[in-house]
Design brief:
Layout (H helix, E strand, L loop, with lengths): L6 E5 L2 E2 L5 E5 L2 E5 L7 E9 L3 E11 L33 H13 L21 E9 L2 E7 L6 E3 L8 H16 L14 E8 L6 E7 L7 H11 L3 E8 L11 E7 L3 E5 L2 E5 L9 H15 L6 E5 L5 H6 L5 E6 L2 H13 L5 E5 L2 H4 L8 E4 L8 H10 L3 E6 L2 H11 L3 E9 L9 E8 L5
Parallel strand pairs: 4-6, 11-12, 16-17, 16-19, 17-18, 19-20
Antiparallel strand pairs: 1-5, 2-3, 3-4, 5-6, 7-8, 7-10, 8-9, 10-11, 12-13, 14-15, 20-22, 21-22
């Protein structure tokens, strides 16, 4: 068995869920972050378990032909031991074509049927419509950025390659104003200070921005002056909020939002559907890819116009509203009251009359439903509850379209629905380029003997 700190040589065979590369040393699997299949590495053991170990790169003895220099200077750099780096991206060390192949392979590992090739992103960079940056440093020398992996140490980021150039400009200008007026950053250890996070939401369709400043305190000195200057410099900023979070927590937003400037919401568009986005609204972070994702779901449904659809874990109603013109009726089930409010509001904006939203836990709501032609599932990473899956087996819709950001729990739930439901097709969609996250849509069909 290995010892922590022991150095070994290893060849990386594949990438697994989460983005770590793996290779074998004897019979022991070794997981190595920021490695690429084909790399021959010297690594140092950082953790040992009974059947596997974790390690970090010490040196690259022979690089994979797919390894490249990461475009972002804040990405992990192997030649600096324990380097201080951004934890946001973990695949920039390989080219985008190879990223797509790696992600398809990650999904394929969980299924027996052939998985479709992943749908690539329109833009592998500059695609995020939302950024959440913690605030740190010292008064007069505040920094914003992202956390180093497995820590709350902030890596100073002035130009994130995943957000638009204009978004970077706005955040940097806001940060300069915070320093000019000497607003105190929040200190997590001491639970003292004022500013906790800066959130920026962007509409790609309409070119609008919303700023949300998260504070520990009710009062932020010079806030009026800061808002006036940032909105004068950037007329694209049409809404500014202060969110107050008093709690000792990793949750970014508190329960109180106060509008400081402009409109209540910004607008975004997916296909022909308009969405209003508030400070706490859930909305997919890759606007252009969301339309591709929704198109996959629509095509898998094979709608004729007379279907009754149930959308479980419907969130702010994105999928429901996108599918509404193509079916008779669609009912969304969502537990979060704020998301249901957003969904109802967005249905009114789009004059959509065949969509209905129910606030409640899916475990209980589905027990009262005895029929649906199609059921849409889009659960959190943990997947569907056992009760939801049992209810689906009772309702027995002709089709189940299951969208997941976790192929492991998707695979688990598909097996539970078998043999009543057969997995027909699986389509990965790259919603998060430069990271190992992958969205996947599975089409399940009711077996002929159960019709």
């Amino acid at each position: 068995m290995f010892k922590v700190g022991q150095k070994i040589e290893i060849k990386i065979d594949k990438i697994i869920t989460g983005g770590d590369g793996i290779g074998k040393y004897g019979n022991i699997v070794v997981m190595v972050p920021y490695s690429v299949p084909g790399d021959k590495l010297q690594v140092s053991i950082t953790e040992t378990k009974k059947n596997f170990a974790r390690a970090e790169i010490v040196s690259i003895l022979s690089p994979s032909p797919y390894r490249i220099t990461p475009p972002c200077p804040s990405h992990f750099t192997f030649h600096i031991s324990h380097c201080f780096h951004c934890g946001g991206c973990n695949l920039q060390m390989t080219d985008y074509k190879n990223q797509l192949e790696l992600k398809t392979a990650i999904v394929q590992d969980f299924f027996d049927i052939k998985v479709n090739k992943i749908i690539p992103a329109v833009n592998p960079f500059r695609y995020r419509n939302k950024v959440q940056m913690p605030v740190g440093g010292k008064t007069g020398n505040v920094i914003t950025g992202f956390f180093h992996p497995q820590s709350h140490n902030i890596v100073d980021i002035k130009n994130c390659l995943l957000q638009s150039e204009k978004a970077n400009e706005i955040i940097l200008a806001l940060r300069n104003l915070i320093n000019e007026y000497k607003i105190q950053p929040y200190n997590e250890d001491k639970r003292a200070g004022i500013l906790r996070h800066i959130i920026l939401r962007q509409s790609f369709a309409f070119g609008e921005f919303m700023i949300v400043i998260v504070s520990k305190t009710n009062f932020i000195p010079y806030m009026r002056e800061i808002v006036e200057k940032i909105t004068e410099k950037f007329p694209e900023v049409v809404s500014v909020y202060q969110n107050i979070n008093y709690e000792k927590t990793n949750v970014i937003l508190g329960n109180k939002n106060f509008k400081l400037f402009g409109r209540d919401t910004i607008k975004e568009k997916i296909g022909e559907t308009i969405f209003e986005i508030s400070p706490s609204s859930f909305f997919q972070v890759n606007t252009l890819q969301t339309e591709k994702l929704y198109e996959v779901i629509k095509n898998f449904c094979q709608l004729k116009g007379d279907e009754n659809i149930i959308d479980v874990y419907s969130g702010a109603g994105g999928i429901s509203l996108y599918l509404a013109p193509f079916c008779r009726k669609i009912t969304g089930i969502e537990e979060a009251s704020s998301s249901v409010s957003d969904a109802i509001k967005n249905a009114k904006i789009n004059n959509t009359e065949n969509v209905f939203f129910i606030r409640g836990n899916a475990d209980y709501i589905l027990r009262k439903i005895d029929f649906a032609d199609v059921v849409i599932l889009d659960p959190p990473r943990a997947g569907c509850s056992q009760i939801v899956l049992k209810c689906l087996l009772k309702i027995h819709p002709q089709k189940i379209i299951y969208t997941s950001c976790n192929p492991a729990t998707l695979s688990r739930d598909v097996k539970i629905l078998f043999p009543k439901y057969k997995l027909i097709e699986t389509q990965p969609v790259d919603m998060f380029p430069q990271t190992a996250h992958v969205e996947c849509v599975a089409k399940l069909s009711l077996g002929s003997k159960f019709l």
